[in-house]
Amino acid sequence: MTQESAAPxxxxxxxxxxxxxxxxxxxxxxxxxxxxxxxxxxxxxxSLEIDSENTxxxxxxxxxxxxxxxxxxxxxxxxxxxPLANFSGTAIPPRDLTVTVRL
Length: 103
Fold this sequence. Notes:
By secondary structure, this protein is mainly beta. The protein has a single domain (2-102), classed as Sandwich (Jelly Rolls), CATH 2.60.120. It has strands spanning 2-3, 10-11, 20-27, 32-40, 43-50, 74-83, 95-102. The strands form 2 sheets. Strands 1, 2, 4, 5 and 6 form a 5-stranded antiparallel sheet that branches. A two-stranded antiparallel sheet has the order 3-7. A hairpin with a 2-residue loop joins strand 4 (32-40) and strand 5. The chain is elongated.
């Protein structure tokens, strides 16, 4: 299951280098890995992943490897729930997603 443009797009006001990125949810998923694709002007910028039963992604701690966020660019988030093959039980999607980008 994929939800494209899971939140309203954000327009970047000025060109910025990214220091780090991370994602969190208030309610963890059960039976799913949550994959977040961050897009700049419709092109994949980076991906984050939140494992089942966890509320935080592994952070991209060193933004030096990422291109800058460009002035006027539109940033969107696609969310994909990847079912775990070995999960037996009632799968529950995550809730209340926050993506944090520090400049």
